[in-house]
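Lecture 7, part 2: worked example. A protein chain together with tryptophan.
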Amino acid sequence: MEKKGRILTGHRPTGRRHLGHLVGTLENWARLQDDYQCLFLIADLHVLTTDYTHPEHIQGNIVEVLTDWLAAGLDPERSTFVLQSAVREHAELALLFSMLVTVSRLGRNPTYKEQVKELGLQSSLGLLAYPVLQAADILVYKADTVPVGEDQIPHIEITREVARRFNSTYGETFPEPQGLLSQAPRLPGIDNRTMHTSYGNAIYLSDDSQTVEEKVMSMYTDPTRIHTTDPGHVEGNPVFTYHDIFNQDREEVEELKARYRAGRVGDVEVKRRLVRALDHYLTPLREKRREFAARPDYVWGALREGTSRARPIAQATMTEVREKMGLT
Ligand code: TRP
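Predicted complex, written out as structure tokens:
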């Protein structure tokens, strides 16, 4: 089949993937493999922009991410897994791109501003240049499509600007890549804030049944409801958001909503049924995950092999770029 184009996207290896990654990102990526040539990047250099003091975590986190990717259906036979730091051309292209971007443009990047202001991270040169490295990740493979979450759109915009600037200065070289937003809404965590590893509110793909049950039973529900007989709110109630996404028994969901609104069902029962639905949804994935986790050689092999396939593409781009920039 003729594929539509080339995708590059990826994750920073920061540890296990959670349900927010699954429904927001991974299921979408898995589907896109049918229509696009996909490169999936493990962005280990990007981890260092915020956390260079813990090099000992990186290896383990890479395996966790890869294992979750495989369990979620990313397929190294059809797609290419790439380790960023193992293809030196990413760093080299980022350096050359850094000539084409102003410091003030990068200072206006909302992600950077937030990390420095709200999280108090040091405004290192590496953190400021984060989007330049991301532009290199994408353009070194001349990818035209980048499926990402909304938070990444400013980085894609900078990538497009770099591509335009390069093309207008040195001649047509790079596509102007498009961000591709997934349809999935943001998944709330068990405390109703956005699901995020650092909030401690996440349900992980690697959580076993019992852990999922404990998390669901402690989930935030309608705070205005004191007695089971009070009419409850379904909208904005994360327990029902989860039912909508994960419970395949639509009839049960509608019935539970009606009873909840009428004050004829308690939170405990609604949660129990969610536990069952989640178990049903996650069991095949957990089984696959267990199989991959037992085969670290296969997991690393998929990354090593993909990286070897990606490298010549990156090298060809760099040959072209060096020549155009006068570095022959
Ligand atoms: N910045 C992305 C994130 O935090 C990860 C990433 C690095 C990426 N390089 C990329 C995503 C290139 C898409 C394309 O999620």
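The longest helix spans residues 296-324. The pocket of tryptophan is lined by residues 8-12, 41, 43, 46, 134, 137-138, 146, 148, 152 (CB under 6 Å). Keep this in mind for problem set question 3.
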